[in-house]
Amino acid sequence: MNDRETAPITPAALAARPLLFASGEQAYVADRVLRTWQTPDGADVAWADEVVDALAEGERALVALSFASGAPGIAHQVAGSERALLRHEHDGVVERRYDVTAFPTPAEYAAMVTAALERIAEGSLHKVVLGRCLDVVSTPPLVPAEIIDRLLTTRPGRYVFSVPLVPAAGDGSLPGEGAILVGASPELLVRREGRSIACTPLAGSVPRSDDPAEDARRAEGLQASAKDLAEHAFVVEAIVHALKDVCVEIEYPATPELLSTDTVWHLATPIHARLAPGVDGPSALRLAQLLHPTPAVGGVPTAAANAVIADLEGDLRDWFAGCVGWVDGDGDGEFAITIRAAVMDGDRLRLFAGAGIVAGSDPLLEVRETGAKLATMARVTGFTPPPDTTEPPG
Predict the structure, then answer these.
(1) CA distance linking residue 8 with residue 168, whole number of Å
(2) Are 129 and 67 in contact (CB under 8 A)?
(3) Catalytic residue ranges
(4) For residues 325 and 337, what is the distance between their CA atoms, to the nearest angstrom?
(5) Which pLDDT score, from 0 to 100, does residue 57 have?
(6) Which long-range contacts does 302-308 make (Cβ < 8 Å, 24+ apart)?
(7) pLDDT at residue 394, as a whole number
(8) pLDDT tens readout for residues 3-43
(9) Which pLDDT score is estimated for 392?
(10) Are 183 and 150 in contact (CB under 8 A)?
(11) Residues 23 and 334: beta-carbon distance below 8 Å
């Protein structure tokens, strides 16, 4: 593990590359970075405890964990405050050219889904989430603060975040270069407030329609879909099972609710619990480690799904499908799943979206679903994704 102490962020650096996590109408925004921890080889329990123990009154750690085994991550120890939605002045509308590459292509992604369905039919796998990317080169380069302003204004997901994936510079400013993770996730992994715990997993989804009648029909169909309800149940069962190790009074509705974003309907189940008496309560960061990755981004069984993801996707994910959030010195905090997100690095941008594959999944419908999810961040960043044209896999 590497860590380094830093100094106050300059106002110019903060304006260009915000370090924040927003939930609801408020955003926690960093004014100073005191230290950055990096865990390239995996984030263990000791790492989580070290981060929380280092936080003084009024400080938080803004954290991103990757999808990979052991969840390598980065944590910025910061001082800041809760604020209303940020707005920055920008120099008018910037005309940009976007070179967009889809990989895998829609046809290749449909073939991946078919391969996953074959493994599910063999019986060793029940569900796996497979993703695809859009790689974008923008001229001139996109500016992180512009994207964050659009996310905070349009709110395509409740949880808006901006976390540099490199340490703060030696002069205390956030680096002017290097990758930064931005996004607006609709999915709460875990929130801890004292001994109260909340999770809201999403699994099972369908693209929305601009036609109100068709949109309502799709929502009703999702709630009645045996395939989507089964996919959703895998996720809820896994989270409840994990919480039983540290929680009591675990409550959740018998059937999922509908949750909508601008492009997708989701099935959602709010789960509430309390830390068990006598338990030296795990922090929000430790709870995030305990729950991550859920079947909402991985699959069932976990090991078999991860093996299929590695085989079919390769190294697409990196920071995507991980989790991002904050924790304070009392252990309270909030983490969202890293979906509806982008990694920005200079003139390059990568978007990622996944879909849960279970028995009965249709490869072409999964292409459409991931395309709708990719459209959320594409719209925010200002370009139109290429059409999802494909032929049924042979």
Answers:
(1) 10
(2) no
(3) 127, 187
(4) 9
(5) 92
(6) 304/124, 304/125, 304/128, 305/125, 305/127, 305/128, 305/129, 306/69, 308/116, 308/119, 308/125, 308/128, 308/130
(7) 39
(8) 544 445 555 566 677 889 999 878 899 988 888 988 867 76
(9) 41
(10) no
(11) yes
Sign of the alpha-carbon torsion through 237, 239, 243, 248: negative
Look up residue 381 and give its two tokens. 């960043």
Per-residue pLDDT tens digits for 170-214: 555 555 578 999 999 999 999 999 999 999 999 999 999 999 999
CA dist 27 and 43 (Å) reads 26
What predicted TM-score, i.e. pTM, was given to this entire model?
A: 0.91
Other CB atoms within 10 Å distance of the CB of residue 182: 28
d(CA 112, CA 107): 9
Rounded-to-integer distance, Cα 281 and Cα 296, Å:
25
Residue carrying structure tokens 């989701």: 266
Asked if residues 338 and 183 have their Cβ atoms less than 8 Å apart, the reply is yes
Q: How many CA atoms lie within 13 A of 383 on its CB side?
A: 22
Q: Taking the C-alpha atoms of 179, 184, 187 and 190 in order, what is their torsion angle to the nearest 10 degrees?
A: 60
d(CA 353, CA 255): 25
CA dihedral 351, 164, 192, 267 (to 10 degrees): -10
Q: With a cut of 70, which residues of the chain have pLDDT below it?
A: 1-15, 40, 43, 69-71, 85-93, 168-176, 279, 389-394
What rounded mean pLDDT belongs to the chain? 88
pLDDT at 262: 85
**Spatial distance between the Cα atoms of 314 and 2, rounded to a whole number of angstroms:** 27
Residue ranges and CATH numbers for the domains of the chain are 2-87+98-381 (3.60.120.10)
